[in-house]
């Protein structure tokens, strides 16, 4: 059974610059509460802006069992990265939910060869997974293709170098820079489909990789996914984490029935309640007016926090970035992206 959303105060213990435009923040978990994380998970923080609650999620970059540490790249005008982070100091407190996220290898699949393709701040969950895999099993091997603009913009470079020194024979790192000349032409330029294909054919032992983990901008993820599938990698062996979506959602089908207003039954923590939804809004957007305890973070379909199983009725999914193929086959939806196409719907957050 899924517990209702709770936020607790995390005390800042360190703030460290890791490259020209990014910092890490390390937290002390609240006393008596478990904030243990699986590799690749994230923390969701809440802030108030002009009297309105805002939430932001940041990936944990430390391995499982390590410190609670996030990496944040500055986004000009960003609520947290540009507004709060520059003045954050040890001793300050931020409110956060417990670690969440499904971009994590299950224990039974952590041996063998894992491949990673990351760009920019996409390294944050990737570093957590890599560190956990290599420390957890002498049979684990890792190949990482990591794209950045310049040497100065490489996040967590020292941490990657430390891992390389510690696991010299089991960690292979390929740096690709889009705005600097590298040691070879192949290592200079954007991580597009052509370059990724060449890297997989010529640099990385791609044939022996059992699982691929991708994190970065939407365009790079799409190119990497197509390149891997074109080379015969099974879809279930490709795992994707998207931080934000760059494009608008698709328009509704022309034959979609017009729903004047739907009723949504929401099941969370064993409690069911029914709320009315205004026309054309997602289940989450409409339901939050009555059920403030519903789980959510990004509201854009990329984090998966609001995932629930559709047990009755129909919906149109605006986007489904955070859902895997098995999730879709089993009837799961992202409630922040699910617009009812029937007069009544029931979603189960506990499923």
UniProtKB/TrEMBL annotation:
It comes from the Bacteria. Its EC number is 1.-.-.-. Residues 5-106 form the FAD-binding FR-type domain. Keywords: 2Fe-2S, FAD, Flavoprotein, Iron, Iron-sulfur, Metal-binding, Oxidoreductase. Coiled coil: none annotated. Residues 262-351 form the 2Fe-2S ferredoxin-type domain. GO terms for molecular function: 2 iron, 2 sulfur cluster binding; flavin adenine dinucleotide binding; metal ion binding; oxidoreductase activity. The keyword Iron applies. Its cofactor is FAD. The keyword Flavoprotein applies. InterPro entries: 2Fe-2S_ferredoxin-like_sf, 2Fe-2S_ferredoxin-type, 2Fe2S_fd_BS, Beta-grasp_dom_sf, Cbr1-like_FAD-bd_dom, FAD-bd_FR_type, FNR_nucleotide-bd, MRET. Pfam families: FAD_binding_6 (PF00970), Fer2 (PF00111), NAD_binding_1 (PF00175). PROSITE patterns: 2FE2S_FER_1, 2FE2S_FER_2, FAD_FR. CDD domains: fer2, PA_degradation_oxidoreductase_like. This is 1,2-phenylacetyl-CoA epoxidase, subunit E. It comes from Actinomadura macrotermitis.
